[in-house]
């Protein structure tokens, strides 16, 4: 029986995946590093430092911990500045509707995001009231594909993993949710989230009616 919904943030609730890309691109251009959308695809759902490591490895760059921190901070400054332009109109189509419907039906709702800026993004969207719990990049040590963030969110909601649906747009996110024993809803193309229990091209198709009809036995 489904009692809770857990949502990833970037690429599910709002399209801040694009702002992450632009911030990494700006840092890379300044540093003379090769970085494009193909490498960016590998950063989806991954923590800030793990993302930087992927980029520096790709460019055969080795740096000490302090320098890595400095670069990560620089990228984050660019990203956070861009968040000032995010507002209540920046929900991905369908996301606000789904949140509204599940709240109305009394389901418990949590955020499960690798981002340390998740609260800021929710505030910009004016979306904090939809969430009973927020698990973010500050909540656990091991980020996706480890299941920790979703287990933390489920615990905060006081529901078991097999009573929750996790919505994710990242391969690492679906891997994390499956590893934790959650039911999974993939948002995006088959090559990225085709291993989810159910997949929709976008949040627009992921209405409560559609979700319930795909997991019929879990809602009856
Ligand atoms: C995830 C994004 O939500 O958060 C990743 O999908 C990002 O691309 C990660 O790297 C960490 O975000 P932040 O805001 O802590 O740098
Ligand atoms: Mg995401």
From TrEMBL:
GO terms for molecular function: beta-phosphoglucomutase activity; magnesium ion binding. InterPro entries: B-phosphoglucomutase_hydrolase, Beta-PGM, HAD-like_sf, HAD-SF_hydro_IA, HAD_sf, PGP-like_dom2. It comes from the Bacteria. The active site is at 8 (nucleophile), 10 (proton donor/acceptor). Gene3D superfamilies: HAD superfamily/HAD-like, Putative phosphatase, domain 2. Mg(2+) binds at residues 8, 10, 168-169. Keywords: Magnesium, Metal-binding. Binds 2 magnesium ions per subunit. It holds the Pfam family Hydrolase. The record marks 113, 144 as: Important for catalytic activity and assists the phosphoryl transfer reaction to Asp8 by balancing charge and orienting the reacting groups. Substrate binds at residues 8-10, 24, 43-48, 51, 75, 113-117, 144. GO terms for biological process: carbohydrate metabolic process. Its cofactor is Mg(2+). NCBIfam families: bPGM, HAD-SF-IA-v3, PGMB-YQAB-SF. Belongs to the HAD-like hydrolase superfamily. CbbY/CbbZ/Gph/YieH family. This is Beta-phosphoglucomutase. It comes from Flagellimonas lutaonensis. The lineage of its organism: Bacteria, Pseudomonadati, Bacteroidota, Flavobacteriia, Flavobacteriales.
């Amino acid at each position: 029986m489904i009692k809770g919904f857990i949502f990833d943030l970037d690429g599910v609730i709002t399209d801040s995946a694009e702002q992450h890309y632009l911030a990494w691109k700006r840092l890379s251009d300044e540093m003379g590093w090769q970085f494009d959308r193909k490498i960016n695809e590998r950063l989806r759902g991954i923590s800030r430092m793990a993302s930087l490591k992927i980029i520096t490895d790709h460019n055969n760059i080795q740096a000490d911990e302090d320098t890595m921190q400095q670069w990560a901070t620089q990228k984050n400054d660019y990203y956070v500045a861009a968040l000032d332009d995010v507002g209540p109109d920046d929900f991905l189509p369908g996301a606000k509707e789904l949140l509204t419907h599940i709240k109305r039906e009394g389901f418990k709702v949590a955020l499960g995001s690798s981002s340390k800026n998740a609260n800021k993004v929710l505030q910009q969207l004016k979306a904090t009231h939809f969430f009973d719990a927020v698990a973010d990049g500050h909540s656990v040590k091991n980020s996706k594909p480890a299941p920790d963030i979703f287990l933390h969110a489920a615990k905060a909601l006081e529901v078991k993993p097999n009573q929750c649906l996790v919505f994710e747009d990242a391969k690492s996110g679906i891997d994390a949710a499956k590893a934790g024993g959650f039911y999974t809803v993939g948002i995006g193309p088959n090559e990225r989230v085709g291993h989810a229990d159910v997949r929709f091209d976008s949040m627009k198709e992921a209405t409560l009616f559609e979700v319930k009809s795909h997991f019929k036995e879990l809602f009856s």
